[in-house]
Amino acid sequence: MSRPGESSAERLLRHAGMQRVPSPRLELFQCRDFLPDDLRQELTALIETNRRPSTIADDNGDRYFRTSETCDLNAGEPAVQRLEAMLADLSGIDPAYGEPIQGQRYEMGQEFKPHTDYFAPEGADFAKFCSVAGQRTWTFMIYLNDVEAGGATRFKVIGKTFQPEAGKLLSWNNRRPDGSVNPSTLHHGMKVRKGLKYVITKWYREKEWGYE
Question: Are 181 and 121 contacting, i.e. CB atoms less than 8 angstroms apart?
Answer without folding.
Answer: yes
